[in-house]
Design goal:
By secondary structure, the protein is an all-alpha fold. Helices cover about 70% and strands about 0% of the residues.
Length: about 90
């Protein structure tokens, strides 16, 4: 039994260079066209964005977990690092 997933066709605007690079990559993989590569790229992007939202939520859940002297030391270390970034 073969189960196929429904796909939707859509139009994506690419530069000539992007199209050429996708075709080269498809040829190296031995596949015709580059739809599969675009699908993989979209899946990767969506997974990355979802992970980013989870990381932000996890970080925000820690708000207020450092208090007193620990919080002061951490804040000073962050301030020092930010100063180094501005100098670079």
């Amino acid at each position: 039994m073969c189960i196929s997933m429904p796909f939707m066709r859509t139009t994506v605007e690419l530069t000539d260079d992007q199209r050429a690079e996708l075709l080269r990559l498809a040829a190296r993989r031995g596949i015709k066209g580059f739809s599969q590569i675009v699908q993989e790229a979209v899946d990767e992007y969506l997974q990355h964005e979802g992970g980013k939202e989870q990381a932000i939520a996890a970080a925000l859940s820690l708000q207020g977990s450092l208090v007193g002297e620990s919080a002061d030391r951490f804040e000073e270390r962050v301030r020092s690092l930010r100063e180094l970034w501005r100098c670079s």
